[in-house]
Specification:
Order of helices and strands: HHHHEEHHH
Oligomer: single chain
Number of helices: 7
Structural class: mainly alpha
Distance between the termini: 110 Å
CATH superfamily of the largest domain: Cytochrome c-like domain
Bound molecules: heme C
Length: 166
């Protein structure tokens, strides 16, 4: 009798083992296998999406190189360090009073004669022409500096012309 019970239990146990094995739930790839498969699919999806990302990056790169080109063009217009550091921020690198199509704080200077520019600058400095911004700026500059700047800005149209012909 005992033998029969042990025999039945053995068969049931073996049957369960086979059943579990076939289902593969707890091991051999059951649920976990599915998760791993899912991860595999996600990764695959991502690698499919990757070219799109590259497009965006390429666009960005294009935009940056376009900007660099612009900056390069502005940089091609050679100005003195004094003009660049003290005047360009309000009057533009080339004295146009514009930067990237937007008006800047200072008016257009390009096209004015050196004589008129020099007179304006001296007048600002001496307070005969009222402008706090310009006066404050020019206070630290000597008359000689003003002359140099006026002469330089007076040359801007010729410089712009020379650039166009390049
Ligand atoms: C912070 C901004 C700013 C900076 C920097 C600046 N300017 Fe000006 N500038 C102005 C403004 C604003 C006016 C207009 C003043 C007015 O019309 O009363 C002006 C006017 C002038 C004028 C008279 C132009 C005109 O048509 O009436 C000259 C010339 C001038 N600036 C030259 C210079 C020079 C040279 C420098 C560098 C040393 C310089 N500016 C730096 C803001 C600036």
């Amino acid at each position: 009798m005992k033998n029969i019970i042990v025999g039945i239990l053995t068969v049931v146990t073996l049957g369960l083992m086979v059943f579990t094995f076939m289902g593969g739930n707890a091991y051999h790839g059951g649920h976990q296998g599915k998760v791993i498969e899912d991860i595999g699919q996600t990764t695959a999806k991502q690698s499919v999406a990757a070219p799109e990302e590259k497009d965006d990056r390429e666009k960005e790169r294009d935009a940056i190189s376009a900007l660099k080109e612009k900056a390069g063009n502005a940089g091609a217009f050679k100005v003195s360090h004094m003009y660049k550091s003290k005047c360009a921020s309000c009057h533009g690198v080339n004295g146009s009073g514009y930067q990237n199509g937007k008006p800047m704080m200072g008016p257009k200077l390009i096209g004015q004669t050196a004589e008129k520019l020099f007179k304006d600058l001296v007048d600002f400095k001496d307070g005969r022409k009222e402008n706090m911004v310009m006066k404050g700026l020019l206070i630290s500059l000597s008359e000689e500096d003003l002359k140099k700047l006026a002469d330089e800005i007076g040359e801007f149209p010729a410089r712009a012309e020379a650039l166009k012909n390049k």
